[in-house]
Specification:
- This protein is 25% helix and 37% strand.
- A 3-stranded antiparallel β-sheet has the order 1-3-2, with helices on both faces.
- It has one domain.
- The protein starts with a helix and ends in an 8-residue tail after the last strand.
- The chain is built from 3 helices and 6 strands, in the order αβαβββαββ.
- It is of the alpha+beta class and 108 residues long.
- Strand 5 and strand 6 form a beta hairpin.
């Protein structure tokens, strides 16, 4: 287990971490809720989404998430990246993208 002091030394900021249970049926709503609360998707696995956000409230950002389904397409990925989305990874046939939202002034 990494201590808070070690995290600060590595990243220059302290982070909170949270894992959320999610299935293919509810993960979009979980992603939307977590993004509104300033949680950034950093990894995922079977039935779990892993998030982080800065401990300092003023450093938090809102996040948007996009999930595509099917065979990966380099053209589709390129279009999303040109629209400001960052590839977050793939799980089976699901492909996840994230970007900071343009929402301003919302409280956390």
């Amino acid at each position: 287990m990494v201590t808070t002091e070690e995290r600060v030394a590595l990243t220059g900021a302290a982070w909170e971490y949270q894992d959320r249970l999610a299935t293919a049926f509810n993960e979009i709503s979980v992603l939307e809720q977590m993004g509104r609360e300033g949680w950034e998707l950093v990894s995922f696995g079977p039935l779990v989404l892993n998030f982080r956000r800065p401990e300092t409230v003023s450093a938090r950002a809102h996040w948007e998430y996009c999930r595509t389904v099917g065979l990966p397409s380099s053209g589709g990925r390129k279009e999303l990246e040109q629209a400001g989305w960052t590839y977050a990874g793939s799980w089976l046939s699901y492909h996840y993208f994230k970007r900071q939202s343009c929402v301003k002034g919302a409280a956390f």
